[in-house]
Amino acid sequence: MVRDAHLAQDVTQSVFVALARNARQLTDRPVLSGWLHRTAQNLAANAIRSDVRRRAREQKAATMNELLATQSDATWEQVAPHLDTALGELSESDRDAVLLRYFEGKSAREIAQTLGVSDEAAQKRVNRAVERLREFFAKRGITVGAGGLAVVLSANAVQAAPVGLAVTISTAAALTGTTFAVPATGTATKTIAMTTLQKTLIATTLAASVGTGIFEAHRASTLRTQAQTFQQRQAPLTDQIKQLQQERDDATARQAALEQEREQLQQTVADVPRLRGEVARLRAEANQTQQLRQEIDRLRSAQRASTPDVAASSTALLAYLGEAVAPPATIEPAYTKEGLRNALEQAAQLAGVPLKKLEIETSEFPFLAGVVCETQADFEKLKSQLKGMPNYEYAGGTGSEGSCAFNMTPHRSFPSDAGQRIARRTILRTQMFFDQLAAR
Of 128, 129, 127, whose CA–CA distance to 88 is shortest? Predict the structure, then answer.
């Protein structure tokens, strides 16, 4: 693109400087060559535009120096470099007056007609503008009288256009799609007038427009060819990128599934000690229940066999069960009658289960709860909700057909010296409480 080995090296260095600056944003790109190619293309185009502008400035400077060198008059040589700046310092009305008089060659009457003022007012405006120009030059060390400045402007401000300029202008206009009638060369030469600044701008514009137009056309064709080649090369890369992205998404999904499975396994491993303790406790309770049932069966058999054995068996049963345990003096509010009732009502509401009956048995510690639901399925929902309550511990119960009597007080709240006694008595109390609940 740049057609210059040294400039190509500069562009290459700029590309990798840009890569270093944007490294953080490019870490996720699977393919880097596409970004490098686009960046190199953009920087090369910028370098070409900069080179064109530099050459235009050099040509403009050369043209300005050549035009100024042709001026032999000493005063004009001093005034010319500052004339356009001085005109820019004037007010709009004063600048119009000077340009009409000295750059368009209008008479005082013509100026008055153009500006819509009297002939005298037009002349005064011209004189005032010339005086302000003289003051402007005097501040910059250029001494010239108002009359002398008027003479210099009349002689040098307007010059005939170079021969062939009209043809060059029409050619440039044709390149940009503009069509207009071109007068005869002699007539155009007489009618086109330019200031120093205008001559410089026209020369620079013509050179830049013609050269830039040809260059841009060539560059556009080159860029189109490169773009087509790039698209053809990019098509398989795009398919490969899509495939890699799909594989990456699949790997991410598999990793997420494995991570979830690992967390579940960790949770299961963490629950093993607790589950083991729960199993041991349930086994102990089951053993106690079995022993109690065996004792009850034995007492019933003894009762049927002979009356004297009943008293002895009852004494043995009472000794096995032990004395009732009174509620602690500092019983926690959650395990009082009101606390258990509130907890059951809240659990039923969260589970969406209506309760037909709710009773709390408070004859001894721990207090027992009894409920009657519409169906067994409703009770299972309620039981699942109870197991998730943080302050309570559902330890199983006795029941059927949606009715159940159970204990919700955790074993950790039992007095240490009465744990076994409470467990034995609770089993018997639960059965008796359920029988009473079902009978009512």
Answer: 129
